[in-house]
């Protein structure tokens, strides 16, 4: 009986594809648009004038043989002026592009189309791509479609209206990945619309996205109150470093987010905030927050009051939130429950669990409103003098921690508690050079002060 040797057949198939794949040198957007690219082909950008280029990268690759748009000299070929890129197809890879010192007049700088699937933007930078008018709104990266990825990119210096990177959520989950990027400085915009990442919008916030944001660095991203704004369901935000960001990781709308393994380092900078919770069934655990000065809406962990019968763009009630095993060190205010209470916004959180958190903070917990069904237990306070009684659900004991070489608190050999943080997030503190394109060697120093 004939037996199919699957690995051998696959190897022969790949060899067959590669033998037909071609490299095409391109010198401008018109030449790129003219190509009829096939699986395995590469369009290779050549040195020259890449000013005012409306690039359209349209093709259909396969998992085994993606189609690639790549720079012949990554980082050295500068795309500027009124330029932008559309990624439109399946199994496409954009690698090594450098958008710098330009501006996009009408479109977002890099857009994944609604038909983009399994496409990837990698090893690419967008730096100071700003218009003269700061009120002009365009995004630097817009992700539509399904199963797309943005990784190892360097993004710095957005000063005008509009979120830096947006995931546009549709009527079915899109499963995008945003990982290993360095989001460098973004100054205060002075109004809403200055987020660094937003996943969804108010109108679709009850739709699921299943987007994962992991292993990124956010360095002094101060555009507005929300550094990362979650506005859809079932997203995962893990193992990121938020460093001296005057804002918060905000679960603004949508439900079922998981936020874990993140490091949020304020270094005592005024207005630095932590994690803000709104909505249902969120899980916030194993995060490490240190040196945050924010209070109220910018406390280390904020659990907000809601608007009764709120519309989607309002404030939904916090329900069934699990907040556990977080480490909060030298923050002004560790927890604020019922934050933001005022006329018209007075629906308190319901069925919130706060357990097994480790806290060194001037104010361990502040109740702006009285929650319904709060379960609080097993939390440890240490090395502080309380002005009043010990809060319910907290014990005062020495967890026997030491600071390591990175000034992060870790259990000593005598400690009876588990590691307060996750190694992946800590590794980002001193391995930031591995984030973003290889040609950026002058990344800012990342350290806990």
UniProtKB/TrEMBL annotation:
Superkingdom of origin organism: Bacteria
Keyword Lyase: yes
Name of the protein: Polysaccharide lyase 6 family protein
Gene3D superfamilies, per database record: Single-stranded right-handed beta-helix, Pectin lyase-like
UniProt GO molecular function: lyase activity
One Pfam family hit: Chondroitinas_B
Keyword terms of this UniProt record: Lyase, Signal
Keyword Ribosomal protein carried by entry: no
UniProt-listed InterPro entries: PbH1, Pectin_lyas_fold, Pectin_lyase_fold/virulence, PL-6
Signal peptide residue numbers: 1-21
SMART domains reported for this sequence: PbH1
């Amino acid at each position: 009986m004939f037996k199919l040797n699957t690995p051998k057949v696959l190897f022969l198939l790949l060899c067959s594809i590669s033998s037909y794949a071609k490299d095409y040198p391109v010198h401008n957007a018109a030449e790129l648009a003219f190509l009829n690219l096939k699986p395995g082909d590469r369009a290779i950008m050549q040195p020259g004038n890449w000013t005012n280029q409306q690039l359209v990268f349209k093709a259909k690759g396969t998992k085994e043989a993606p189609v690639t748009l790549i720079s012949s000299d990554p980082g050295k070929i500068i795309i500027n002026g009124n330029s932008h890129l559309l990624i439109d197809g399946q199994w496409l890879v954009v690698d090594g592009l450098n958008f710098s010192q330009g501006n996009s007049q009408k479109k977002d700088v890099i857009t994944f189309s609604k038909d983009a699937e399994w496409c990837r933007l990698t090893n690419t930078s967008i730096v100071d791509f700003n218009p003269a008018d700061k009120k002009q709104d365009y995004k630097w990266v817009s992700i539509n479609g399904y199963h797309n990825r943005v990784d190892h990119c360097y993004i710095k210096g957005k000063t005008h209206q509009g979120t830096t990177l947006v995931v546009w959520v549709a009527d079915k989950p899109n499963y995008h990945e945003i990982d290993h990027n360095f989001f460098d400085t973004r100054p205060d915009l002075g109004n809403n619309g200055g987020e660094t990442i937003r996943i969804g919008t108010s109108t679709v916030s009850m739709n699921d996205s299943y987007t994962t944001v992991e292993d990124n660095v956010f360095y002094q991203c101060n555009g507005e109150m929300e550094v990362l704004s979650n506005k859809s369901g079932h997203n995962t935000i893990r193992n990121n470093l938020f460093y001296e960001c005057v804002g918060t990781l905000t679960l603004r709308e949508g439900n079922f987010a998981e936020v874990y393994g993140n490091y949020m380092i304020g270094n005592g900078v005024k207005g630095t905030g932590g994690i803000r919770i709104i909505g249902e069934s969120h899980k916030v655990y194993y995060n490490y927050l240190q040196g945050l000065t924010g209070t109220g809406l910018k406390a280390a962990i904020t659990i907000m009051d809601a608007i009764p019968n709120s519309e989607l763009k309002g404030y939904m009630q916090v329900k069934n939130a699990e907040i556990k095993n977080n480490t909060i060190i030298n923050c002004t205010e560790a927890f604020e429950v019922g934050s933001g209470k005022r006329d018209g916004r007075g629906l308190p959180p319901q069925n919130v669990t706060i357990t097994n958190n480790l806290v060194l903070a001037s104010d361990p917990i502040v109740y702006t409103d009285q929650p319904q069904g709060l379960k609080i237990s097993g939390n440890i306070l240490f090395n502080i003098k309380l002005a009043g009684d010990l809060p319910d659900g907290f014990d005062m004991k020495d967890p026997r921690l030491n600071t390591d070489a990175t000034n992060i608190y870790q259990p000593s050999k005598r400690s009876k508690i588990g590691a307060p943080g996750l190694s992946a997030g800590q590794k980002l503190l001193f391995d930031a050079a591995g984030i973003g394109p290889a040609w950026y060697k002058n990344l800012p120093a990342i350290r806990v002060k």
